[in-house]
Design a protein that fits this description.
By secondary structure, the protein is of the alpha+beta class. The protein is 31% helix and 28% strand.
């Protein structure tokens, strides 16, 4: 028997794709492997947490890529990752550095003489 556990995370638009969290193999009729082992349960929770944290971080970055003043899309200046500590383990998250919008640069760099 093959057990596949998937999750769906819907965005505000309503779109979602299944994310495979874990896959286990079980011998049919073997009661020694009834349910999940502790290691399998931990793995399942870690993968669920990783999928959720990455989806939330991606949504935050997508929302932050728009200039609040003019609505322009901000370009990415640099890309790096960070390690975020969760209850179920450390998760690596993409953390792009965004450029400042030109409209913000124009207002701050002007000087009145």
């Amino acid at each position: 028997m093959r057990i596949i556990i998937e999750a769906r995370i819907e965005d505000n638009v309503g779109g979602s794709e299944p994310i495979q969290l874990v896959e286990f193999e079980r011998a049919d009729g073997d009661l020694k492997q009834l349910g999940l082992s502790l290691a399998e349960g931990k793995s399942l929770m870690y993968e669920a947490q990783r999928a959720l944290v990455n989806a939330q971080a991606h949504g935050f970055v997508a929302a932050s890529r728009t200039c609040l003043q003019c609505g322009a899309t901000l370009s990415i200046k640099a890309k790096h990752t960070i390690r975020y500590r969760t209850v179920f383990g450390k998760v690596t998250i993409d953390s792009p550095q965004l450029r400042v919008c030109k409209c913000s640069q124009d207002t701050t760099s002007k000087s009145s003489a």
